[in-house]
Amino acid sequence: MSTKIEQKDINRAAWAACDTFRGVVNPSQYMDYILVMLFLKYISDVWNDHYDEYKKQYDDDDERIRRKLERERFVLPIVMLKEKSDKSGHEVVTDKFPATYYSLYDRRSDDNIGELINIVLDHIEEANKSKLEGVFRNIDFNSESNLGKTKDRNRRLKAFIEDFNKPQLDMRPSRVSEDVIGNTYIYLIERFASDSGKKAGEFFTPLKVSELVAKLAMPKPGDKICDPSCGSGGLLIQAANRIGVRNFALYGQESNGSTWALCKMNMFLHSYDSARIEWCDTLNSPMLVENDRLMKFNCVVANPPFSLDKWGAENAESDRFNRFWRGVPPKSKGDWAFITHMIETALEKEGRVSVVVPHGVLFRGAAEGRIRQKLIEENILDAVIGLPGNLFPTTNIPVAILVFDKSRERGGKNDSRKDVLFIDASRDFIQGKNQNTLSEEHLEKIVRTYKKREIIEKYSYLAKFEEIKENDFNLNIPRYVDTFEEEEEIDIDSVQLEIDQLEKELVEVRTKMAEKLKEIER
Predict the structure, then answer these.
(1) Residue 405: what pLDDT?
(2) DSSP single-letter state for residue 231
(3) d(CA 229, CA 76)
(4) Which pLDDT belongs to residue 201?
(5) Which of 202, 396, 447, 521 is most buried per CB count within 10 Å?
(6) Average pLDDT of span 283-298
(7) DSSP bridge partners of 80
(8) CA-to-CA dists, residue 391 to 47, 209, 430, 459, angstroms
(9) How far, in Å, CA of 236 to CA of 186, rounded?
């Protein structure tokens, strides 16, 4: 029986493969190369594992085996390289091989190895259009600008391909579970986020924050789950993992092409390749539409770009879906534009929204204040949860999570609920050298408090609508959760006695020092 590979071993081996590009290619660029090669190696190992299994059943009937494999999750087609014959002028086949990692490994010393990788990826994409169309369009393994001139590029690509042939990266299903591969993919994305600084916000939400957002959305079997700014798909995967069974549907939209491709591969590696992930700008061109109307979802989760400038306010008044009927957010801050889009796509009297926001969303006035007031008056805001600062690689500011619950609408099962739960979890974190994180205990405390709607001194408070109205619909958490710690009372007389004693001891020490110095001078 094959020895199972451990998560830490595959993580370490995959991260070590990055050494080929460090110092040569920017982390935000070589991330694509690493993750695409990991993806290719995985699907090649899955294909080979299944091929070996069917070989036992069908002996030497290779065509029958291929047809059976192609009816499964994906196809690895045959590549036929052709060129024109000098004599006849007709094209002749010069090489023929399956579109797999191992074919590339056998050809790793070829002068055109970068071009061969591109050809293999093109063939895989073409053969699996319904699941992978467009996924590799933004990656070029033959790029001189990214990978250097031919000689250097070939040397790097050869070493890179060899890095993935290590025993720790044997990703056959008989050795490695799908969870391990998916976790490695997320591990690499997290490491790249740490290296990429501000650019990480385009594709990554810290794992514990994603887990918390998903738990607060409380997805259940049968739900349609959406992330309108899905990045590399971590939040969707966390929401799916909460359900425990395969009875759900995932939807997402992402405006960055490279990040969209990461998300598609991430879904595939987690066996969620039926997820519908669209590539376009959610605020200006929502693609999750049916019968010319926005699709509706049971759960909507997101970590949208914070205070996005130039988000499309000039087009909001004429929005054909009428998403901004409560008001148009300022053109320099798109936070409430994302929030209102999410609310409009949540199912009436049922849908739940869980969204990460900067604290300015809670108290900024003008147009944002008016939108906030209308949503509170609609009675769908369920909770405001403050988190610690420095949780993100992109910013050290503290953030909050807003939870909206449409079951509080008139006719919904929670329409009698008229209060808003405020939780101040800003002091609960594990301090890191460069970035803080949340523990499982911190998450459990937040979720438990939310579900029970508990009032805990200096931690949580249930504010009635009248209280929020008195505060001019300002949701700043310190207005509702008093975390003030009284300073210990100082006994002035006792402190003065202590000072007198110290001064007396200091005189004695100085006298002794003077005597010692006189002895030395003699």
Answers:
(1) 98
(2) T
(3) 31
(4) 46
(5) 202
(6) 96
(7) 96
(8) 39, 8, 10, 19
(9) 12
Angstrom CA distances, 474 to 293, 339, 361, 372, 468, stand at 33, 17, 10, 8, 7
SS3 of residue 65 by DSSP = helix
- Which residues are CB-contacts of 382 (< 8 A; sequence separation ≥ 6)? 403, 404, 405, 408, 417, 420, 421
Secondary structure (3-state) at 453: coil
449 and 459 Cβ atoms separated by less than 8 Å: yes
Task: Report the C-alpha gap between 447 and 442 in whole angstroms.
Answer: 9
* Per-residue pLDDT tens digits for 145-170: 888 899 999 999 999 999 999 888 88
Residue closest to 276 by CA, chosen among 242, 299, 308, 249: 249
What is the b/e burial string over 358-376, where b = at least 16 CB atoms within 10 angstroms of the residue's CB? bbebbbbeebbbbbbbebb
- Please tell me the distance from the alpha carbon of residue 257 to that of residue 277, in angstroms, as a whole number: 11
Whether 403 and 357 have beta carbons less than 8 Å apart is answered as no
Query: How far apart are alpha carbons 504 and 343 in whole angstroms?
Result: 71
Q: Is-contact 357 310, C-beta < 8 A?
A: no
What secondary structure, in 3-state letters, does 21-35 show?
CCCCCCHHHHHHHHH
Q: Is the pLDDT of residue 204 over 60?
A: yes
H or E stretch at 502:
helix 492-521
**Closest to 185 measured CA to CA, from 74, 32, 302:** 32
DSSP for 162-217 reads HHTTSGGG---TTTS-HHHHHHHHHHHHHHHHHHHGGGGGGT---HHHHHHHHHHH
Query: Is residue 199 predicted with pLDDT exceeding 50?
Result: no
Max CA distance (Å), the chain: 113
Distance, first Cα to last Cα, the chain:
87
- Cβ-contact 11, 187 below 8 angstroms: yes
Q: What is the pLDDT of residues 18-59, one digit of tens each?
A: 888 877 777 667 788 888 998 999 899 988 888 777 777 766
HSE of 402, CA atoms in CB hemisphere, 13 A? 26
Residues 359-369 pLDDT 10s: 999 999 999 99
Q: Where are the beta strands (DSSP E) in 319-407?
A: 352-358, 381-386, 399-405
Distances (CA, A) of 171 to 9, 39, 80, 191, 452: 12, 10, 26, 20, 43
Burial 220-229 (b: 16+ CB within 10 A, else e): eeebbbbbbb
Q: What is the rounded CA–CA span in Å between residue 510 and residue 471? A: 61
pLDDT of residue 85: 66
